[in-house]
Amino acid sequence: MKEIQVGLIGLGTVGTGVAKILFEKAEHLQSMIGLPLRLKKIADLDLEKDRGLPIPPGILTDRAQAILDDPDISIVIELIGGLEPAGAFIIEALKKGKHVVTANKALLAQKGDEIFGEAVRSRADVGFEASVCGGIPVILALKQGLVANEIESIHGIVNGTSNYILTQMTEAGLPYEEALKEAQAKGYAEADPTLDVEGWDTLHKLAILMHLAYGAPLGKEPIFVEGITGITPLDITYAREFGYRIKLLAVCRKDGNFLEARVHPAMIPSGHMLANVQGAYNALYIHGDSVGDILLYGQGAGMMPTASAVVSDLVEIGRNLANGIARRIPPALSARGFQKKGLALKPFSDVVARYYIRFSALDSPGVLSSISGILGSHRISIASVIQKGRGISSSVPIVMMSHEAKESDVQEAIKEIDRLPVITSRTVIIRVEAPE
Amino acid sequence: MKEIQVGLIGLGTVGTGVAKILFEKAEHLQSMIGLPLRLKKIADLDLEKDRGLPIPPGILTDRAQAILDDPDISIVIELIGGLEPAGAFIIEALKKGKHVVTANKALLAQKGDEIFGEAVRSRADVGFEASVCGGIPVILALKQGLVANEIESIHGIVNGTSNYILTQMTEAGLPYEEALKEAQAKGYAEADPTLDVEGWDTLHKLAILMHLAYGAPLGKEPIFVEGITGITPLDITYAREFGYRIKLLAVCRKDGNFLEARVHPAMIPSGHMLANVQGAYNALYIHGDSVGDILLYGQGAGMMPTASAVVSDLVEIGRNLANGIARRIPPALSARGFQKKGLALKPFSDVVARYYIRFSALDSPGVLSSISGILGSHRISIASVIQKGRGISSSVPIVMMSHEAKESDVQEAIKEIDRLPVITSRTVIIRVEAPE
């Protein structure tokens, strides 16, 4: 092999960033790999758009098939996103013995087992560093840097859009809708923000991390997901009073033979490193049995940070090709590993946490006593309470921080409390996380 | 090859941690590599000491030579520290075609060029993840994860002892000497703390990072080093008033064809991620041209975190051996790379920074005017001044934050000011860093 030929499918934002690096840093990358890395073909349906990047003639095509059919291309980069045709392209590339690099978290989270299975059969590599936390080398850390560790827990801020919105709500005191509009105006949120703000994107990334850290199967486990659309300025204010900040978290934690996994907004102590992750930044807080706590922080999205991750995968695969090998890292972290290790997903109702609970109640005598009575009967004990002055409104917030309690107990207690005539609107709960 | 045989020289704290992982996680590591990783021999001068670790018979020896002479051992781990005989052991191991893993930052910083040169000649790998920031995979990030980037700057808190002392001075208001005693009592500082508190350990790590990021030669460049022994509670209090925290930083930054490199205490804006690195923790803040800002945070020392890094190197080399290859990553980042790229070290006197300057002066009229006159004549302009109430003492602190100024101008101005009769003791300067 005299050079490594690469085909890129999808010349959108990230694809353009990848092409830019491959064109502009060709000499540097060659010295890092030991062989030239040549971007031979780029496939995109839009041949006319000006991407602000000079593309040498003969490279751009509107047929992805031209890349898949090229026997000299050994690495295919898939950056079109979505489930199909991305999935079919990847499977075909693998079947043809090509290696694949992708940033497609939704696809991996849902069809990763099929893709990784095909990669094993074809003895091909799949690089997906860009699928979680953009430019931050978190996949590399789990596959290599922390390989000596049993991963005890992962707490991640992995969705920049949600973190930007929550930061604006916290710093500028904006309500959710306004913070969302601002995020959209600045390009941090899409016109339809559902995937980000409802937690689905965070879930996709969590699934990939659980696969890496525990060999959990992809796309099959029912994981609790709650987004940030219900977070109010009132809860953010109370969080501050209690010394917390609210972040949308991906959480997984090993507990004996069970693996806890969930996506939801959480209150994090304001002195914690994760609480200080602001704006569109991402961070992963990993606890390993040997290494202790690790935080990996940086930009989780955007053209060049994501392109940086894609190119790091190209270099990794390129270094293998330059040495005449493939699949250097054994596929031990497969879905089968999950059962082999005897791990099972813990039902969400069994999760134990501390809770922030905000009741809205009539400002009348005996309310606190009724509420705390019901909580007590469900084995929920209270660490602190804030009940503020009798105001103009007849409904007042009563805010409590619980000691550790079981999710199902909390749900049942809230259901019972919300039926009390003195309760004026649905009770809000936010789980408290203090990752160690 | 049916198994990878490993020899460990040095069964101290980290060595014991490494042996523990290799014995207890043998099955896991085998699945990560594809071949068993067997710790065949351990050499230590003390054969009697109880390390709280059951060592199978026939493994422990007091002769390092037994490891170096064993033709079946393909990886030698050096964990005795210090320059010699560690250096000689490593060179001999490499000459015999063995791969080496070491945590020895002092040795690499001073004799790394010789060691890496021998590794190139012998086609052997040298793993040194544990030499910088303990368990945090920073070497891996620079060699692989951020490989698509030109590294524009690195700001690191890389010495846990100094950071612990500064944190205690800040949080508990302790003077330096008491914070040092506490650090010694807790095992965070050695009986002779010079290497840590005077900045030399930080310099060693900076040299290794500069080698990786820029191909800078090891042990030859004169780099400015200032430790933390001159930091007083007064400066910490003023730092807080201005909105900063004081940290001992390793800094390198590319500026055109120059590379700026220095080790000194610095004031960092209190909202910055680096300012929130507390206690014995380490963090590296890296700015890459594509990826933007990255922070890697965790425990920079200690038995198990450092052992985690050593074992990650073993797995990396083991994965190469299992595939029948070595030196998968080309040695492009050699000392010659520095000259090839046309980089030169910027003289420290040319460094431009903002400065915290604390004068001690007689509380008499005209002092502020004399001081600011001299500063102005040296092109130093002042952003803000704190001059506090006339107290019991006749000497008062006058504290200034400068705009950007050149180091040599600041030094000359201070020299001139310190000669004024109204100045009662030596002026203190602390450089301000706000890494972006």
- CATH class designation of the largest domain in chain A: Alpha Beta
Low-confidence stretches of chain A are: none
Quaternary structure state of the chains depicted: homodimer
Distance separating the two termini of chain A: 48 Å
Please tally the β strands of chain A and state the result.
Answer: 18
The CATH superfamily of the largest domain in chain A is identified as NAD(P)-binding Rossmann-like Domain
- Tell me the radius of gyration of chain A: 24 Å
Describe this structure in words.
- Chain A is an alpha/beta fold and 436 residues long.
- The first copy, chain A, is elongated, with a radius of gyration of 24 Å.
- The two termini of chain A are 48 Å apart.
- Helices cover 37% and strands 26% of the residues of chain A.
- In chain A, strands 7, 8, 9, 10, 11, 12, 13, 14, 15, 16, 17 and 18 form a twelve-stranded mixed beta sheet that branches.
- Chain A folds into three domains: 4-135 and 303-337, 3-Layer(aba) Sandwich (Rossmann fold), CATH 3.40.50.720; 149-299, Dihydrodipicolinate Reductase, domain 2 (2-Layer Sandwich), CATH 3.30.360; 348-432, ACT domain (Alpha-Beta Plaits).
